Amino acid sequence: MIIKVRRNQALAKNNLIPSPSPIGRREKTMTEKRPFNLDATPIVFGYANALKKEMTEAEKVLWANLRNRKLNDLKFRRQHPIGKFILDFYCHEKMLAVEVDGNIHETEDVKEKDEGRTYILTEWGITVIRFTNEEVIDNLHFVLEKIISLTK
After folding, report:
1. Are the C-beta atoms of 58 and 130 separated by less than 8 Å?
2. pLDDT per residue over 125-141, tens digit each?
C-alpha cells in the first residue's frame, strides 16, 4: 500500500499520471444547463395544478394535439410552472412557450403584463408564441404549423 502511494506521488510529481479520458464527456446543451422550473415556488406549482383542472376549450383542443409527443415527437407540458409564471404549454427541449389567450388579454393592462412577461421569458432564453382562443378553435392547422416552424 505504501509503495503504491509513493509511486503515484512520484508519477504526479513528474506529470506522468494520465488525465481522465475525454470519452463519454460532452458539453451540456442549453436545456441541460437551464433549470427546469427556474425555482418556481410550491405556491406556483399549486396554482399550476389548479389550472390543469380548469383548462379552456381552446387549451383542451391544443393539448389534445400536443400531448404524448404527437407534434414532431416533441415533449410538451401543460400549465408548466417556471419562475413566478405558469406557461400554458412548454417544450423544454426547444425552450418554447405556447400561450393561448382569451378575451381578457385584449385589455391594455393585461397586454402590458403579457409584454413584460414575454420580455422576461425571452431574457431566460425561452421563445414565446401567442394564439387567441379563436385561432386555436377555428384554425388549428395554422396554429400547429406555426409551432412546428418555431421548433426547427
Report:
1. no
2. 999 999 999 999 999 99
- The CATH number of whichever domain residue 103 belongs to comes to 3.40.960.10
Instruction: Determine the Cα–Cα distance for residues 65 and 149; give it in Å rounded to an integer.
Output: 16
Kindly state the cell numbers that stand for 111.
397586454
Contacts of 126 (CB under 8 A, 6+ apart): 82, 90, 95, 96, 97
128's CB contacts (< 8 A; 6+ apart) are 96, 97, 99, 117, 118, 121, 122
What does residue 102 show for φ and ψ, rounded to 5 degrees?
-90, -170
Total number of residues shown for the chain: 152
Phi, psi angle pair for 95, to nearest 5°: 50, 55
Number of domains, the chain: 1
- pTM value is 0.73
